[in-house]
Amino acid sequence: MTILPHDLTAIILVGGLGKRLRSVVSDVPKPMASVNGRPFLEHQLAFLAQSGVTKVIFAVGYMANIVERHFGKSWNGIQILYSREKKPLGTGGAMIKAARLVGDGTSALIMNGDTYFPVSLTKMLHDHITTNASISIAMFESTEPGRYSPFGVAANMQIVTASDESSRLKSGGVYIFSSDMVANLSKRQVVKTSFETDLTPAFLIENITMTAYLEHCPFVDIGVPSDYVKAGKIIESVTSVR
Question: Superfamily for 8-239?
Answer without folding.
Answer: Spore Coat Polysaccharide Biosynthesis Protein SpsA; Chain A (3.90.550.10)
